[in-house]
Structures are given as structure tokens and as C-alpha cells.
Amino acid sequence: MTEATGPERVRSAEQIELSVREASAGVAPRNDSGRWAAKVDRLDVVRRDGVRGTNVAGRRLTGPVQGFGKMWQKTYRLAAGAAVSPEEAITTWKAHFPEFWPAGNRFAGALTGISPGDVALLDLAIGGGVKLSTGVFVLYADEESFTLMTPQGHMFAGWITFSAEGGPDGTVVQAQVLMRANDPLYELGMTFGGHRKEDVFWTGTLTALGRYLGAADLTVTTRTVCVDSSRQWRKTSNIWHNSMVRSVLQTLAAPVTALRRRRG
User: Fold this and answer.
1) What is the pLDDT of residues 194-247, one digit of tens each?
2) Cα 92 to Cα 4, 31, 44, 87, 173, distances in angstroms
3) Alpha-helical regions (H) of the chain
4) In whole angstroms, what is the distance from residue 257 CA to residue 146 CA?
5) Domain ranges of the chain
6) Does domain 13-263 have CATH number 3.30.530.20?
7) Closest CA relative to residue 134, chosen from 155, 161, 160
8) What is the pTM of this model?
9) Which residues pair with 115 in a beta bridge?
10) Running DSSP on this structure, what letter comes out for residue 11?
């Protein structure tokens, strides 16, 4: 196994997992506890305009340990140039995070931006006029990075860390995903095209960010490492929470639900 390169100050998957376990045990993570979200058992949701907001409330958070499929680490990097500092890049990314997502996908976070403990609601285009309704939890945030964690039913169980660091040629921005598909159905989807769509999504996001920051070269480098090739068959029951299945059923039931409300 090889490791993807990245900013040295960004926490490794092992450090993130340790802090999550400490928080779950009621122990404050070391040194920078104010940048970590407080312990949560199940997610609370504040409804936001423009997104469906289903399949999130009451769900537990899931890291790669709770997922079903093979474990992958995916790293996407773009050189933003010398005109912007790492802190400026992350401040911009946090403030305009939804604007950099590919068209057809919605990210509805808190009005105050991205802060530890926030729950954002997502509507993701999956084709056929159906939006996958899910969410993410802001696990960590500081001046040079922030980490999102997924709930039960999301496409994958894991973390996404967004970061920036300075180098000889200027600032480099990065998105790094550590994930397992959440259940057998998602694993099948990831195997047959899902990984490619994931790459297109984050490449598009970094390209949009780089364009906003004025990067001269919008080339995004991608590195994918299979951290664990085994599947966790004991996690097959995760399919009960599958947000894709539930979103399809909710879309099909929407006309009936609306009619019942009007009659009521």
C-alpha cells in the first residue's frame, strides 16, 4: 500500500479516527478541541430551503469502520498559485463551498458557513430526475482545513478532508476522501461507474475553486489507493438505511403525498 501525498499539517485518517473515538468516549481531543465538533449520538436537522432534507435526522455518523465495501483513499490536488495564501484559500472555500459543486447538486449548510458541529443537507443528482437526499456533518474545521463526515445511508461511510498548504510554487488545495461504500448496493454502484463519477465530481469542484482563486493552471491531479481490499459482510444490513433507495421511493410517492396534504 502506498500513501497519497498531502499537506503535512492535515490530520491523517488514523488521527481523525482516534479523535472520533475519543469524542465518542467523552474525552476531548488533544490540543485543538475547540476545532472539533462536540459528541453527537444522532443528527439533528434544521430544515433549509431548496433541498428536500430527508434521510438525515436521527441518523448516526459512519466512518470507514462502519462501511461495507473496499476501503479507498482518494486525493485530488490543484495548484492555486502564489497569489493566495492557504488561509485565504480555505476561507474562500468555506464561504463559497456550495458554489463550487457541479451543476445539478445542492449543498445547504448553515448560514454562518462551515463550523464544527454543523449539519448540511445535500441533494445529489443520480439521474432519471431523481435527487439523492442525504447530508454531511462538519467534524473539524480550522484555518487551513475542514473535515466532513457522512451519516448512515450515505453513498459511503467515511471522511472528506479539504485542505490547503503553501509550497515553493505557491498554495496547493486538496480534497481527500477516505471511504467505504456503505452497503452492497452502493458497492455495486461504485464498482460499475460510481468511482468514475466520484472523480468527475471532485475534479469539477477543485477546478471551479481554482478558477475562482485565479489559478493559472486548472489541472487537477488524482491519486487513488485501495487501503483495504476486503469487504465487511457483517455490515450488509446497512442497506436498510440506503438513502438512494429511500430517495427514489420518496420521489415516486411525492405526488400522492402532495395530494393528501391538499385534501387535508
Assistant:
1) 999 999 999 999 999 999 999 999 999 999 999 999 999 999 999 999 999 998
2) 25, 25, 27, 9, 11
3) 13-24, 86-95, 184-189, 195-213, 243-263
4) 38
5) 13-263
6) yes
7) 155
8) 0.85
9) none
10) P
